[in-house]
Amino acid sequence: MKLVTAVIKPHMLDNVRESLTEIGVAGLTVSESKGFGRQKGHTEIYRGAEYVVDFLPKVKLEIVVSDENLASVIETITHVANTGKIGDGKIFVTDVEQIIRIRTGETGDEAI
Questions:
Q1: CATH code: domain of residue 45
Q2: Element at 72 (helix H, strand E)
Q3: Does residue 62 contact residue 34 with C-beta atoms inside 8 Å?
Q4: What's the gap between Cα 50 and its chain centre?
């Protein structure tokens, strides 16, 4: 089992969620976050004053998938969230040792 953590632009969330549902992803966790990468933020003008926005709004998705579904999840997120512009985001994949569904006590792939 793998934990896929994707950091994407907020306006891409609905499209990514719909596409993941279409390929059979049963659930995911979404968190609002802020951060920066190579773009290092940007400057904006508000009421005539210029200021620097260091941290840009992002959305973090966390999805636990079986090993056989990993490639299709990564491909879907990469394809749908790609705008071709800086700041599209990143995908991180980590191993998951154990999953336990609290309600039923199911473990492993059955608990996904």
A1: 3.30.70.120
A2: helix 70-81
A3: no
A4: 31
List CB contacts of 106: < 8 A, sequence separation 6 or more: 100
Comparing 112 with 31, the larger pLDDT belongs to: 31
DSSP code of 80?
A: H
Total number of domains constituting the chain = 1
- pLDDT value of position 55: 80
Give me the chain's average pLDDT, please: 90
Write the CA distances from 44 to 36, 41, 50, 52, 54, integer angstroms.
16, 10, 6, 6, 11
Proportion of the chain above pLDDT 90, given as a percent = 72
74 vs 4: CA distance, rounded Å: 8
Pair 65, 25: CB distance under 8 Å:
yes
Q: Please state the pTM of the whole predicted model.
A: 0.85
